[in-house]
Amino acid sequence: MDFSNKLSDLKQQHLYRSRKVIDGAQDTKIVIDGKSLINFCSNDYLSLANHPLVKETFKQGVDEYGAGSGSSHLVSGHSKAHHDLEEALADYTGQKRALLFSTGYSANLGVFSALRDELDWILQDKLNHASLIDGNQLIGLPLQRYLHNDIASLKKKAEKQSGKGMIVTDTVFSMGGDQANIDDLQKIANFSNATLMQDDAHGFGIFNANIPKNSIYMATLGKAAGTMGAFVAGNADFIEFLIQKSRPYIYTTAIAPAICIATLKSLELIKQGEQKAKLLANIDFFRNFSKAISLPISKSNSAIQPLIIGDSEKALNISQKLFDQDFYVSAIRPPTVPKGIERLRITLSANHTQNQIEQLLTQIKHALQ
Ligand code: PMP
C-alpha cells in the first residue's frame, strides 16, 4: 500500500488535515505553539469545559469513583454515577429513560446496530452527520437521502417505500447551524409507517428539545455540556432493547464515572440558564454586527455560524489569515461538507466578549477583500 502518494494527493487537493496541539484547557482563549488565540471553533458552546464548578465536581468524582470505569456497562462498569446521570437526562428531556454511550459517534452507530432487523428502509437528510451515514452503512440498508431540510423531497421519497422505516435528521445541522422542522418530519413519519430519529448534538442544552412520542432522540455531552459522552432517550422498552441489542453499547468500556459526576453539574448549570443567556446574547450580537458590515453569513440562530467560501484553497487561506491575526476559525472542506459549499465554521461560546466577536468579524471582512 502506497500511503505516501495518497497523502500527496490530499495535499494537492487542499484536503489534507492536520491537528493543532492546544496547550492547556479548552476555552475562548487558547494557546497553540506559544501563540495566544481567540478560539472561534470550539463546540464548548456554554463554556462549561473549563468552568470552575464543573472542574471542581469532576475532581470530587475522581476522589469518589477513581479514574476509570474498569468495564463495560453490562459487566461491572455501570456505576451509580452513570445511573444517576441517565435518570437526570431522562428527566431533563421528558423521556421515560435515557442510555449513556461513550461518544456520540458510537451512540448513533448503536441505534442503527440495534435496529438492524427492525427496518426495511431509512431516509436521511443530505447534510446529516457522518456518524448517521456510517450507522446506515453498518446495517447494510441502502443510503437514501432527501434534499437538505426539504419536506417535499422527503415526502416524495417516503411515498415510494414499503415496510417499516426510519427518518433521520440532525436537529441543528453540524456544519450549517440551521435547524430541522421536527413537527413536519414527524408528520411524514406518521404517514409512512416510520420512526423519526433526531441527532441533537448541537442543540442539546441550548434549545428546548422537541421530542415527538415514540421517536428516537440522541444528544451528545461533549459540546454544550462541556464533558464527553452521549445519550439516547426514549420510551422504556426501546431503551431496554438498546441494552440488549446495540453492539456499540455492549462491547465498549463505560466512560469514567467522574465524567458523569461532572456532567450532572453541567446539567445543573444548563438548567440554571446563565451561560445559555450569555450565548444567546452573543449569537444575537454576532448576527447584528455581521449584517451591519454586510458579511454574508448563512441563516442560523444557533451557536454555529457558517460563512460559505465555496473553495477549499480559499477557505484554508482565509482561515490562515485569521490565524495570523490571532483568531482560530476552522475551514470546513470535503468530505465533511460537499464540494462547492466549503466554508468557515464560526462557533460562538457563552464566554466570548462582544469585543472579541466584533474584532473577528472585522478581520474576516478584511480577509475577504
Ligand atoms: N452527531 C453530530 C451531529 C456531531 O456533530 C457529532 C460530533 N461532531 C457527533 C454526532 C459525534 O459526537 P461525539 O463527538 O460525541 O462522538
Topology, number of strands: 13
Rg calculated over all Cα atoms: 21 Å
The tally of helices reads: 14
What proportion of the residues form beta strands (DSSP E)? 15-25%
Q: Distance between the terminal alpha carbons, to the nearest Å? A: 43 Å
Bound molecules: 4'-deoxy-4'-aminopyridoxal-5'-phosphate
Q: Mean of residue pLDDT?
A: 97
Strand order of the largest sheet: 3-9-8-7-6-4-5
Instruction: Report the helical percentage.
Output: 40-55%
Spans of at least 5 consecutive residues with low confidence: none
| Classification by helices and strands | alpha/beta
SSE run: HEEHHHEHEHEHEHEEEHHHHEHEEEH
- Biggest sheet record: 7 strands, mixed
Overall 3D shape: globular
Q: Quick gist of this model?
A:
With 369 residues, the chain is of the alpha/beta class. The protein is 43% helix and 16% strand.
How would you characterize this protein structure?
By secondary structure, this protein is α/β, with parallel strands linked by helices. The protein has 14 helices and 13 strands. Strands 3-9-8-7-6-4-5 form a seven-stranded mixed sheet, sandwiched between helices. A three-stranded mixed sheet has the order 1-2-11. A hairpin with a 2-residue loop joins strand 1 and strand 2 (35-39). It is globular. It starts with a helix and ends with a helix. 4'-deoxy-4'-aminopyridoxal-5'-phosphate is lined by residues 103-105, 108, 129, 131, 170, 174, 199, 201-202, 220, 222, 230.
